[in-house]
Structure formats: C-alpha cells, structure tokens
Design brief:
The chain is mostly helical and about 325 residues long. The protein has helices at about 1-10, 15-30, 40-55, 60-70, 80-95, 100-115, 120-135, 140-160, 165, 185-205, 210-225, 230-245, 250-265, 270-290, 290-310, 315-325. The chain is built from 16 helices and no strands.
Length: about 325
Amino acid sequence: SLYDLAAAMLSPNLHYQAEASAYLERALAIREKYPQDSDPALEKILGCLSTCYRETGKTSEAIVLAKRAIEQRKFEHEPSERTNFLYQLLASCYNKIDDYVNEEAALRRSLALAEELAAPIKVAEAHRSIGLCLIKQGKSVEARKHFETSLAMLEGVEKHGLDDKANHTIDFLLISNHQPLHGTKQTSFEENKRVLSEYIADCYVREGNEAEAEKYYEKSFLASKFQSESAREHSLGLLISCCLKQRKFDKVIMLQKSILASREQRLPLSELAVAETSLSIARAMKEKGDYAAALPLFSRALSLSKKNLPGDHPQVKLILSEQGECEK
C-alpha cells in the first residue's frame, strides 16, 4: 500500500519526490524484515526509490538502490523489459555525476538485453544513449556509428510498421537525462529522425567532413516538417551554417530566402527578424561577388533596423559599414 501511494504521487510527473521517498523508505524497511532470494515487490520499491533519490540529488544512494534492484532480477530465466529499464535507470544515475565510463557500461548491458528481447525500438534507444555518452567522452567516430545504427533501425521500424507490443515505446527520448516527447506517432518518429540526423551531422563536423555533415543536416531539416516553426528554423540554420563553411552561396541564398518568405508573412510583428534574414542574404550575395543584388537587401535590413532600434545601435552601424563596403 505504501508503494502504491508513492507511485500515485509520482505519476504522471516526478513532482512529489520527497513525499514519495518517505513512503518508499517505510515500505523498504518493512519489506527488508522478510528477506527473500528474489522479491519482485522489493525490487519495485528499490527501483522507484532510486528514481526519487536521483531526482532529489541523492545520486550515490540512487546508484546503490538501482544495483540492488538489478540484483533482485538475477534469478529470472529470460531477459525482461524491467531489467532493461533498471540498467537505463542505473546509467542515468551515473550520468548525473558525469561518470560516463560506468554510464556506458550500464547502457551496453541495456543494449544487450534489448537485443535479446528482439525489441527494435529499445535497441535503437540504447544505441542513441550510448552515442550521447560517447560524445561526452570525446569519441565522435564511435558515437556516430551508434547514432547511424539507431537512425537506420528507427527508419526500418517506420517502414515495416510496429507490432502491438512496441507501440507504446515509440517516444524513445525518455532516456538518461532527456525528456520524453509528446504527440502523435508520426510526430515522434519525425522528431527522433530529426534529432538523430542532427547528432550524426554534428559528429561529421567534429571529424572535419562538412560534405557528409551537410547531407545529415538536410535530412534533419526534412524531418522537421511536422515540428514547430522554431524547430524547423533551428534545423535550417544548421544546414545554412554548414553550407556557408563550404562556400555554397547559391544554396545558402536559396535556403535563406525560404526563411525570409516565412518571416515576411508575420510582418509587421517580425520586422527585426526580416531585417536579420535580409542581412544574411545580403552577406551571402556579397561573398559570392553579386554586389548589385546584395545592395537592396542591405538597404532593407538598414531601413527596418533603424525603424526598430536606436540610431546608435551596433547593428545599425554594422549594416552601414557593410553596405558601404559593398557600394565600393
């Protein structure tokens, strides 16, 4: 009863960890008076209390309890989703204290269990988590391979469909210190594809391979079509930045114009945003050497900036300077 009360306090959000912890600690004390080799009720209490401790900063205690919960599962004859969850919990505790070596070890155990369970979403989830852990250790190439595996598995599941058992696991960003996604299955698939593609592109940037990075930033942008406008502009911004580094000015201008068209629809509320985008396009045209096409955009950026900013604002002075260079 104490466990059920604590679980109810924690659902659907972890808002009452301290209060729930008190009930769970009482439940644990009672259960420990009657020790058994394998006690499912004890394991539930240990796992739930570990989660509470993790969220309230008692990370060392959370790790001890997560390990004890896993120990309670040692007599099971087949791999289980519960044990997989407990290893993810243990990994998230190590993540809290930046112990990435032990976090990686726990995540690899989670991956092995997910593979034994033949659960593709959980396998994809584990590969993604390991990739994030490896990034924190500076292992970009190895991390990228895990992200690529995760993305390929997710796309395979999307292509071939999900069985009933896997349907509830579609929002697989509920791992480590990441928040779960909300929305439709399609939205979740596209959001996960967007994020994974961005991670892969970031790895290629670290490796100095801008051409491959561009492919995945483009993939991330295409997957953002079901997301918020800010998410779409974020993905597009990364793609534009990558193209700029490669001096692909025609593509940069084309992409920036799509942002400009979107922002123009929100005028006059978005005048400074329109000025910013106009300035970006003007700079790309200037770098390309198309000064005649750049000048009207510099003028527009200057006009909107003067309208919305003080005359001595640094942005106004910068636009005047760049416009003067272009006129020369």
